[in-house]
Amino acid sequence: MRLFIGTPTPLKCFKTLKEELSPFINGKWSKEENLHLTHKFIGEDDPEKWHIPLSVPKEEITISGFGIFNKKILYLKASSTHINAIAKELNVPNFVPHITLCRMKSFQPKLLEKLQSLEIKEEANFEVYLYQSTLTQNGPIYKKIWKY
């Protein structure tokens, strides 16, 4: 089974962001219902191996600011007091907490100006799940199979 550990991050601003930024981007947008912060991508494995104790804090995750990985991934930055502690527990080096918005084939230079003009500030519950990820022609389908 293809697995990852993540936090669902529904965004009230997603439709508006997509409408405002799409004219500057050639790419594939994440499905709104699939928005999440990945704590650890596992890949093919037995889900029973991942029924492990994790210290999930009772706090909110703050979502604000944009970033771009390798001129290909547009994302929102995520932060909280204890977000890096989970990465450490899961042995994830160089963890960059983020929510992928779009996988870009290309973008216009004006995208960078547009991103600087937008202010985003949302919060999400800090809930952590083991997800099953099934790849389809219409994009991935995620199913929560365990709550930490």
Task: Please provide a written account of the structure.
With about 150 residues, this protein is α+β, with helices and mostly antiparallel strands. It has a single domain, classed as Cyclic Phosphodiesterase, Chain: A (Alpha-Beta Complex), CATH 3.90.1140.10. It contains 3 helices and 9 strands. A hairpin with a 6-residue loop joins strand 8 (about 130-135) and strand 9 (about 140-145). The longest helix is centred in the N-terminal third of the chain and has 8 residues, at about 15-20.
Looking at this protein, list some descriptive labels.
16% helix; globular; five-stranded antiparallel β-sheet; four-stranded antiparallel β-sheet; 44% strand; alpha+beta; 148 residues; Cyclic Phosphodiesterase, Chain: A
In short:
This protein is α+β, with helices and mostly antiparallel strands and 148 residues long.
Order of helices and strands: EHEEEEHEHEEE
Q: What's the helix count? A: 3
**Nearest-angstrom radius of gyration?**
16 Å
Give start-end ranges of low-pLDDT stretches. none
The name of the CATH superfamily reads Cyclic phosphodiesterase
Name the shape in a single word: globular
CATH class: Alpha Beta
